[in-house]
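$ run holo --ligand "guanosine-5'-diphosphate" --emit tokens
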Amino acid sequence: LLPTVMIVGRPNVGKSALFNRLIRRREALVYNTPDDHVTRDIREGLAKLGDLRFRVLDSAGLETEASSGSILSRTAGMTANVLTRSQFAIFLIDVRTGLHPLDKEVGKWLRRHAPGVNPIVAMNKSESLHYDTDSFAEGAMEAQILGFGEPIAISAETGLGMVALYEALRPML
Ligand code: GDP
Ligand code: MG
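-- output --
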């Protein structure tokens, strides 16, 4: 049985972009669940990263909750159920905007619904920053406020940092 990794994060951090990069041209399954008048989609695909193979989930359901501003009030629902069955998570943030209040909400949500999951925090859109600038180091420092350890820097769009992601995932999978 393949390990399952869920990609979580507030809207627009690049979850779907990372999902698409990891599954490339392979088919994704889509689960539709009407719940509380909101349709939550979760896409599942087979990820390949170097020699790693895992099931990857794009948590669009969490995004729906986040955008409706009720991320903490809706404790049930498909996303939570699916996350409970995922052993691992990639928690995406947007390095260009810095830490957003909703990122902290997502962190709280993770602790509440998946206390056993210690997510890998990935600063996405890092191709837009230079590694030697203060803004990058500041972003990395700030990301540690989330309490999930040191972040890695990636770009779902360009593929930057996929080796770092591989190295973070490999010991866990
Ligand atoms: P989601 O809402 O978290 O699923 O985010 P999406 O994958 O839909 O991406 C939101 C926006 O960010 C889109 O306009 C993407 O093209 C853009 N985006 C995603 N990943 C990257 C990245 O690595 N670098 C840059 N510059 N933009 C990105
Ligand atoms: Mg998306």
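-- notes --
The pocket of magnesium ion (ligand 2) is lined by residues 15-16, 60, 63 (CB under 6 Å).
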